[in-house]
Known about the structure:
The chain has one helix and nine strands, in the order αβββββββββ. It has one helix at residues 12-15, and strands spanning 20-30, 37-43, 48-54, 69-73, 79-81, 84-86, 89-90, 92-93, 102-103.
Amino acid sequence: xxxxxxxxxxxxxxxxxxxxxxxxxxxxxxxxxxxxxxxxxxxxxxxxxxxxxxxxxxxxxxxxxxxxxxxxxxxxxxxxxxxxxxxxxxxxxxxxxxxxxxxxxxxxxxxxxxxxx
Length: 117
């Protein structure tokens, strides 16, 4: 992997705008007619959300992440993909660098809905 250049400096107040939380991936559902997208049903403690992600080409079995906790950006505008509204973004590691992405996970179990930062 060739390491990317560090992005331009931002203010701490800009970082405060991003709401990153822990959620448990309860279910991975195949999206028919898509060669890369699946729908995740994620438990954030006080509510659940559907989050559409491109895992099919990255993993032999996308269902292997069911039951795992991971980091999610939860304050993005909802976005429709393949007819399904996605209510956030999986915060994974490696995709922009061209390596097979891995989940950004806590070192031990924490309550769903905990904020990162």
